[in-house]
Amino acid sequence: MRTSIATVSLSGSLTEKLTAASRAGFDGVEIFENDLLASPLTPEEIRDRCADLGLSIDLYQPMRDIEAVPSDEFARNLRRAERKFQLMRRLGADTVLVCSSVSPLAVDDDVLAARQLRQLAEVAQQFGMRVAYEALAWGRHVSTYDHAWRIVERADHPALGTCLDSFHILARGSDPKGIQDLPGEKIFFLQLADAPLLAMDVLQWSRHHRCFPGQGGFDVAGLLRHVLSTGYDGPLSLEVFNDVFRQAEAGPTAVDARRSLLVLQESVGAASLPAPVVPTGVAFAELVTPDAQPLAALLGALGFARTARHRGKPVDLWQQGEARILVNTGPSGLPHSRLRSSGGTPIDGTGLAALGLESPDPAGAARRAEALLAPVLPRRRAPQDVPLDAVAAPDGTELFFCATDRLELPNWLTDFEDLEHTREASNVHRIDHLALTQPWHHFDEAALFHRSVLGLQAQQSVDVADPYGLLRSRAVTNADGSVRIALTVGAAPTDDTVHAQHIALATDDVVAAARRFREAGGHLLPIPGNYYDDLAARFDLTEEELATYRELGILYDRDEHGVFRHCYTHTVGRVFFELVQRDTGYRGYGAQNAPVRLAAQHAAGGVTGG
């Protein structure tokens, strides 16, 4: 199906918005009136610019406060509308959006509203235009789609139809099932937006918190199915008012927007994409560092051994059990890595730049990612190196699709030469989860990316109290928990704190692992004694347990599935490690303890993070 996006959904000048929409692959745009008014280009120049970019102008919007008003006011409205139709003719647009009135002059009279909208449609028809009437969720007298349709039906004019907007319908709690009773040819336009489920005034909710389909809590796919059942064949258009999107770079936002529409179309059977290939484990985590010594000391204390070195690159493999850490000491790290702070600025020092994800079909995973507009990353490799498919996540983290234990597929480990080493009894058996800090304007995009491109399941978003603000965190996982990634972001774009990434290592005995780490010279994050006094009040723990946890800085949590014990190392660069013990099916990440850990990291002078 054709796709479109309202210029109000993107940041920048009108020219920048049009360019971003075209490069992302949209077929058309809605021109928001304020964008046109602020543009130095004439309507003819905007029309030509859109044509050059391969964009149609699918809608001009909005025309407000037209109907159900006194006759003298309506006469003024018609004069205003004629001027707008003249403008639209110059612009090359043939459909205008008319929002249900919020004017205090409007009266609750459907007969009058229908008569005046019919007169408007007659004028529009003279200019070769159509009028799409939309019910605003906060309209003075018309606030639901079915009410708007009854007025359109009463007006009975071929140049008058309705515009359906998923936000206005779903935010009101209206049942979208009735849409399937509308004639498809009278649905002149469809606008789509999602939103988080918030208890707030619907106008403020709409103006500040809309998001792209799949990023909120609305059943946009269900609504779309009802619309398509009518025979509607117009564009799927995004109209999203969002404070974050308005401040973020237009190009990546447009790509995120189009990805959301591709996934939405797939969910209703309107688009065929390569099937999701869900990762089955973490093959490796790759750290880039200008100085390997502090990181080597930390890994050694954790029980890792330096087991192999890449044949042609300054990359070492450190391993313990099935947990593998690559340490890259190249002059510029990975060629496409973009280590960034929460504000998007480059970060010097040690950072997590890449993940290897075990995949049952690496080539299929790459095809899926490419179809959903994930940047496919070329690799600088020698002829003998194993070819690995890689794409970039929204935060710049490189994702490699691996088949470590599949004999019939290339194995990335063959690029490494074994080193002499002593492998001791392991306390760590695999990577439990990873926490990736997102630039503030990519949080929702990251969740949609990992869910749609990788096929991971997104958990509920949670807010975590940091001493200097709030952090948002949302985990994405596969079904059995062998892949867990926590996506974290500072709650405000003004947050200049550099949040760290961390790697959580699974152990069957966190107390033994913590003692071994400390005996090997490692430094565990100290936790305030007040935490353990509270822990004694909340849980029935023995004095011996409490004393051990207090001594080692071990944190404790419990849910209906089991128990979670965890502790943290000091930070190197902007990376730290966590030792975790999950008992009998605990599914969380110790979010209850996060504020204490964050405060302890601030007190220790390190960067903080997820």
Automatic annotation (TrEMBL):
First-level EC class: lyase
KW Cell membrane (keyword) present: no
Catalysis performed (reactions): 3-dehydroshikimate = 3,4-dihydroxybenzoate + H2O
Keywords: Dioxygenase, Isomerase, Lyase, Metal-binding, Oxidoreductase
Binding locations of a divalent metal cation: 134, 165, 191, 239
PROSITE patterns: VOC
Cofactor dependency: a divalent metal cation
Protein family per UniProt: Belongs to the bacterial two-domain DSD family.
Protein name (Swiss-Prot/TrEMBL): 3-dehydroshikimate dehydratase
Organism per entry: Streptomyces xiangluensis
Lineage of origin: Bacteria, Bacillati, Actinomycetota, Actinomycetes, Kitasatosporales
